[in-house]
Structure formats: structure tokens, C-alpha cells
């Protein structure tokens, strides 16, 4: 069987790190900057960055509508940090003109763990994944304030005495509030490839 082809949105953020991690587990990678580069990819990774800037770049590049159409057709997706915000149904403190794809039933608050100085790391128990806890790097991370009934919470973190979901999945969409590409742990990316291979039959 041919290797799965995964697009990495390369408008801003950690696209190179995601691409390297995907290649290390056997994927072909296309860096997506224009609508035509969506052709032929079986999944998309939306990396961290600044969510309002990414929203504007998706609009100005002409990528937003064709990418939304692919996501609504069921293309598997992994969104990390800002990518989680862009995939969520509701952005609680976004700009009025901020775009989101709305393909996972979450209400997400931007930068809710704090600013850059409040970045932190944690070890997470990832449901359905073998091996040791996943080391997670949170940088200006979003917080899930509400998860809909069809959303699976795969990992949570304890902060200020409260448990907050930080890895969620609904259908073909996986989101994480942190940066798995910085720790080099490929398990979320492997979950994405499994969805691509399942859809290929």
C-alpha cells in the first residue's frame, strides 16, 4: 500500500516540525499554502501559531472555503494549539471576524492558561495509546470550556485544582491544546494516519 499523504498548513506556525514528525512515521507530506495543494492529500494538520493571524491568512490565501469543504466531507484533521481553536465550533473570546471551521463540538477560550511566561509542561495519560505518558508542552494554550456529547476526551490536565480537556476527538478530527511536535511524540500523528488508512479501506 502506498504511503498516506498528509497536508500541513504552512501559512504560519510550526509546520516544519509537524512535517518532520509525519515523515518519521512514514507519511508523504505536502506543505499547503494554496488551494491547489489540497488536491490529493488524505488529511490535514493545522499547527500552532496565532489563531487570528491564521484566520486572516486562510481568508487571504483562498484556502478557507476549499479546506472547509474537505473537512465537512470528512477529511481527517489534527489541530494543535491554534489549530484546535480553528477547528472548534465556538471561539469564546475571538475577534468578531475570526474564522473557524466548526468541525468539532467544542467551546474553546484562547490563551486561557496564560501568556508566554505562563507556559508549562505536563505528562498526560492518553486514552487508547500504548506506552508512557505523553509529555506535553503548553505555550499560550487554549482551554476547552465545553465539550459536546459526541466528543471523546482523550487526555486532561490538572491546573488550579480543575481538570481541563486537552486532547479531544470527534469522528475524523483530533485536537490538542499543546504542541506535540515539540516533544517529538508521534502518537497523535499516528492516530491521524490510522484514520487516513481506514478511509482508504
Describe the structure.
With 201 residues, this protein is an alpha/beta fold. It contains 6 helices and 12 strands. The protein has helices at 15-24, 51-60, 64-72, 82-87, 180-183, 187-200; strands at 5-9, 28-32, 43-46, 77-80, 88-91, 104-109, 120-124, 134-138, 143-147, 152-159, 162-170, 173-176. Strand 10 and strand 11 form a beta hairpin. 43% of the residues are buried. The mean pLDDT is 91.
Quick structural overview:
This protein has 201 residues and is α/β, with parallel strands linked by helices.
What keywords describe this structure?
201 residues, 12 strands, alpha/beta, 6 helices, Rossmann fold, single chain
Largest sheet: 7 strands, mixed
Determine the number of helices (DSSP H or I, runs of at least 4 residues): 6
Q: Bin the strand percentage.
A: 25-35%
Which structural category fits the helices and strands?
alpha/beta
Which SSEs are present, and which pair or pack?
Blueprint: E1 5-9, H1 15-24, E2 28-32, E3 43-46, H2 51-60, H3 64-72, E4 77-80, H4 82-87, E5 88-91, E6 104-109, E7 120-124, E8 134-138, E9 143-147, E10 152-159, E11 162-170, E12 173-176, H5 180-183, H6 187-200
Parallel strand pairs: 1-2, 1-3, 3-4, 4-12, 5-6
Antiparallel strand pairs: 6-9, 7-8, 10-11, 11-12
Amino acid at each position: 500500500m502506498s504511503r498516506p499523504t498528509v497536508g500541513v498548513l504552512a501559512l504560519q506556525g510550526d509546520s516544519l516540525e509537524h512535517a518532520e514528525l509525519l515523515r518519521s512515521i512514514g507519511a508523504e507530506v505536502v506543505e499547503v499554502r494554496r488551494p491547489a495543494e489540497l488536491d490529493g492529500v488524505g488529511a490535514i494538520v493545522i499547527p500552532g501559531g496565532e489563531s487570528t493571524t491564521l484566520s486572516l491568512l486562510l481568508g487571504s490565501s483562498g484556502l478557507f472555503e476549499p479546506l472547509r469543504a474537505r473537512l465537512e466531507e470528512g477529511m481527517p484533521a489534527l489541530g494543535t494549539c491554534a489549530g484546535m481553536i480553528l477547528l472548534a465550533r465556538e471561539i469564546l473570546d475571538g475577534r468578531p471576524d475570526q474564522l473557524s471551521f466548526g468541525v468539532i463540538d467544542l467551546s474553546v477560550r484562547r490563551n486561557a492558561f496564560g501568556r508566554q511566561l505562563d507556559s508549562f509542561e505536563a505528562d498526560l495519560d492518553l486514552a487508547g495509546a500504548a506506552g508512557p505518558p505523553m509529555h506535553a508542552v503548553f505555550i499560550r494554550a487554549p482551554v476547552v470550556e465545553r465539550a459536546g456529547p459526541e466528543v471523546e476526551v482523550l487526555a486532561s490536565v490538572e491546573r488550579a485544582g480543575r481538570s481541563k480537556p486537552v486532547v479531544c476527538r470527534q469522528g475524523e478530527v483530533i485536537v490538542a491544546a499543546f504542541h506535540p511536535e515539540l516533544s517529538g511524540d508521534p502518537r497523535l500523528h499516528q492516530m491521524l494516519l490510522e484514520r487516513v488508512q481506514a478511509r482508504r479501506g
